[in-house]
Amino acid sequence: MIEGVITALVTPFKEGKIDEKSFERLIEFQIKEGADGILTSGTTGESATLSLEEKEFLFKRAKEIAGERAKIIAGCGTNDTKKTLETVKVAEKVGVDTFLLVCPYYNKPTQEGLYRHFAEVAKNTGGKIILYNVPGRTSSNLEPRTVKRLVDDFDNITGVKEASKNLDQMMELYSLVGEKISLLSGDDSWTFPLLTLGYKGVVSVFSNLLIKPFKQMIEYVKKGEIKKASEIHYKYLPLMKAIFIETNPVPVKTAMEIMGWISSEARLPLAPMKEENKKKLEEILRKYEFPDF
Questions:
Q1: Rounded to an integer, what distance in angstroms lies between the CA atom of residue 162 and that of residue 169?
Q2: Which of 20, 43, 92, 274 stands 20 to 30 A from 246 (CA)?
Q3: 132 assigned to active site
Q4: Catalytic annotation on 148?
């Protein structure tokens, strides 16, 4: 089961196209800094505005560069079951065997619809599936008992990225399936408390910038050194919040541009940060040290 720090990697653009050289450097940076996994074409990677051909490039190139040094996860979820399965098959073709599947957005399926959607993909792939529950973006909530039903029925459903912001639901989810699959925080700022409740790691936006603090925090929790883990959490909490001051991934891309790593360019309908928010972000960035890129 995958655990630890999985980076929801940004997709760098240059004049509307994927900046391939920057993408390759980002993969190498993630590996050098110790990421346990790298998610390409997730929400932070602007999956909604990537073509299938672009997704194939990201999956293929990430796998080629990483080899066995880091786990590559393909963001394959859409709001169309057929298209989701087509994207999974593209990822399989280039050698990626783990897929993140977001709950179908806009359609607002029932729990039965969500079950059937994920079941259709699960029974048509030998790869591993991580379910992604983020009601704030999808307008549908994958309930714990639906997750349990899926886990009971399909051995290749091996994890959940949980971003419901509902602590009661998060605890219920652990009580039902937490010993069977990897439960991962889907929000950086929720990672510390969820680790103490048994979750195994995080799918992180923050780790586009810094990986080692989260790695250390996870190790402290494993050792029962909760106070040390909490100190890391509170030290970096202002930055975790700052990179969500506007819609993700605009702030984290802007931070990466400020540091000279990549362009902050995002695809419409995402717009550049407001100047006042950019200034706030710059002020917070100055309080931290970052590794060489």
A1: 9
A2: 20
A3: yes
A4: no
Q: Quick one: pLDDT band at residue 283, thresholds 50, 70, 90? A: very high
Pairing mode, if any, of strands 201-204 and 4-8? parallel
Q: How confident is the model at residue 161 (pLDDT cuts 50, 70, 90)?
A: very high
**Matching residue, tokens 């909530």:** 141
What is the C-alpha separation between 240 and 204, in angstroms, rounded? Answer: 10
Q: Please pick, among 55, 71, 128, 161, the residue that the annotation labels catalytic.
A: 161
* Omega before 249 within 30 of 0, i.e. cis: yes
Amino acid at 53: E
Residue among 18, 132, 1, 17 at smallest CA distance from 79: 132
**Cβ within 8 Å of residue 139, ≥6 positions away:** 105, 106, 108
Give me the phi and psi of 86, to 5 degrees please: -60, -40
Catalytic residue of the set 115, 128, 132, 174: 132
Q: Which amino acid is at 63?
A: K
pLDDT, residue 122, reads 98
Long-range contacts of 163-171 (CB under 8 A, 24+ apart): 163/132, 163/133, 163/134, 163/135, 163/136, 163/187, 163/190, 164/133, 164/134, 164/135, 165/136, 165/190, 166/141, 167/193, 169/141, 169/143, 169/144, 170/194, 170/197, 170/199, 171/197
- CB distance 50 to 75 below 8 Å: no
Q: Could you report the per-residue pLDDT of 198-245, keeping only the tens digit for each?
A: 999 999 999 999 999 999 999 999 999 999 999 999 999 999 999 999
Report helix, strand or coil for 190.
helix
CATH T-level fold of 4-223: TIM Barrel (3.20.20)
What number of other Cβ atoms are within 10 A of residue 276's Cβ? 9
